[in-house]
Amino acid sequence: MNTHEILKTSLSLLILNTLYDSRTLYERYYQDIVSEVNYFKIISRFIEFNFLKSFSKGVFYLPKVGKNGMIPLSPLATKSLVISSNEYGCEIGEVLYHQLKLTHQKPKTYRYYTSNLTEHKKTYGIATFHRLEVHFDGLTTLHIQFMDVLCNYDKIIHINKDQFLTIAQSFCKQFNQDIFLLLHKLIEYQKKDIAFLSQVLDYFGVEHKLSTLLSNRSLYKIPLWK
Asked: Which domain of life does the protein's organism represent (predicted)?
């Protein structure tokens, strides 16, 4: 069995419609049996003849075929390329607002925070990943996502205010100022968004010291959310 056949046989065992980084696969499985140059030539040939499908530069997948032809990749497949589990990242933006049932508007783009990037930002198709160097435990993720909602409240199409109040109340029961301050140091929230958070916490009777981050002389533009 020649190198071409070895690669085709092993790659045919990949999970269908799952994204793979070609260099990662080479370094993990193939560098002892084929040169880097020949490996990428063979991969390009496989893509040319539709055995593999190219997703973006250096990323491909083994296509899943149904009765009506190739089945499109799911957004989850794109997410899993970078975020293999919840401890490495979370949803933000349109996909989050839809998941939280704050809007019926289906997401057109998919955005994530993740600790699994070396660069500041990386885009795969309609998915964009932003680097955030934190451990994404449940409580930290809760704070990241709630702040993302506050920062973009006015941009959420036909926002369900009753659902927002439910989410806000649940968040306030778990609010941790130390976690928020850590995130603020990394993300640098605008003062108007901190003022929004402060108002929500006050409404639900949660003690905090966010006033130290705000100015008594300023009037912050906070959405009508109650």
From this structure: Bacteria
